[in-house]
Amino acid sequence: MSTSQFAVYQLKKKPELRNLLFRTYEELAKDQIPVQIENYEQVYLGTMKPGETPEQIKKELGKKQPHNYKGHAVSTSDVLILNDKGVMTTYYVNKDTFIEISDFMKVTSSEGGGLTKDTVGYEIAGKDGTWEVIDYLLVEGKNYFLMEHEQYGKDVAYVVLDQKGNVLVDGTYNGFDDVVKQKILDSLYPPVQEQAEGYKPKLDNWQKYMENGEYLRSAEITEEANYNMIDGLKNNAAPKDKKNRPKESVLAKLNEKKEEIARRSGQKDMQQVMEEDIERKKR
């Protein structure tokens, strides 16, 4: 690996684990209590200089804790995991020393077996032969294992498993390269499909009605040109069948009505009566 990193693990804040806090490795061994990753949580993940020791790391963290450090100062019962250019070593923080432990990172796979940095003869579902761990990577407190085929070696593409034994990358010849790392990050944080700015899902009429609120609905109804358009926008255009009709004259319609009434009653139009009266006076 091109980047060396380290992680700090501390006991989870659970009542049943209080009796393990700040106890020395010798005390745990006397009571036959194993140091297991399921009792711990990662409180910090950072980069380290190649060849840096756990003593140096503890000293540096004691001087100034990084802003994203989530635990207490490194002390007895903590665990430090150092990944120095792909070589991973796990240390139990004792009172005055650091004790290397090998089984801390053991996890249960989906096949019911175990995966550690020393795992060999591992069977992957759907694949022939057996596989062995040749490298592993720690990302966001989770372990990812690079598996090599034991019978064909580098002639067969590597497979990357997550800490549950699931196949994360089915075929890579470059180990934990940038492409594989990106796939690991994508599995942790699936990309969210972005919607266009101002996008608003289409609503049915009843949804528009409920969304606009009582006051807005009342105001809109008083000015709406089309009552089936109660959608938060005032004065929507009238329905298409009325929109293009020519505007009719009210006065013309009134005159037509008067003429119709006159015809039905046998009376002459008022204008005709006035014209005849004028003619008589001229004579």
TrEMBL record:
Coiled-coil annotated residue ranges, if any: none
Entry superkingdom: Bacteria
Domain DUF4316: 214-255
Compositionally skewed regions (Basic and acidic residues) per UniProt: 246-267
Pfam families referenced in this protein's UniProt entry, alphabetically: DUF4316 (PF14195), LPD18 (PF18832), YodL (PF14191)
Sequence ranges assigned to domain YodL-like in this UniProt record: 6-104
Region (Disordered): 234-283
Protein name: DUF4316 domain-containing protein
Organism: Blautia obeum A2-162
